Amino acid sequence: MHRGQIAGEIRRIGPEAGFAERIIMLTEHRFIQAMHALRHHRHRAPETPIHEIYQSSTINAVLEGIYDGAMTFGQLKRHGDFGIGTLNALDGEMVGFDGRFWQITSDGSVHAIPDDYRTPFATVLFFKATVGKTIQGPLDYDGLCTLLVNSVESANLFSAIRVDGTFRHVRTRSVPRQTKPYPPLVKITENQPEFDLYDVAGTLAGFRFPDFAEGMNVPGFHLHFLTNDLQAGGHVLALELDHAQLAVDDTSHFHVELPTDESFLAARLGGDRREELNKAEK
Ligand code: ZN
Q1: CA of 85 to the centre of ligand 1 (A)
Q2: Which of 31, 267, 275, 281 measures 20 to 30 Å from 128, CA to CA?
Q3: Entry pTM
């Protein structure tokens, strides 16, 4: 029975049924609204989680020296099994894949990260490769980036990148744990510990963000490394790839969870920080 039929039925009852008619019309109207909402939601089944990149805080907050976060790694793992970032007090580099998250401290050593450790900045997702290919070296960092540019679906999407392989050389860095008051990141990376790893097998994990994501994350490629024997790793500065397997996971969804503590709320996080970012992260 549609709206006209209902109204016709009511009219046949007589004018004294006006109140009942209004109630029925209202009920019917709400039912139609609910059906519209349901149809709209069917485009994305509500029980299917969105395949999204999930991030705690912003890169500009890290540049500004906001190194304490509210989020634990236990909480972070609910949003991804793969990612990169850092730990509270800027205590080293973080890299994660296959559901396990690792800390590379400033002495170059690798540690499994307990679930109750916190992060001030991390980017994760549940990695599901959409592109897979074999890479034959020799290939340096720029060469790899060129190959990756041609492997992602579009420079305007968010891409997670995983490269498992053998490397003639990987130069990484880590950052030392800080004490308050925290200095800005560029002050710390001026004297960052760097590690030259030769003839290693391991995994590169990271992301490519579009230029328009500036301020939220690092525009372009940002990769961290971990050796298969868990002896070394860090934020990648240079490399020479020998032979590897590439996996790319593109997504159009990017979820950011901002801190709500006093240091974040009071910080000045705008402005052009490209130069600062290049010094600290490239
Ligand atoms: Zn990094």
Answers
A1: 6
A2: 281
A3: 0.83
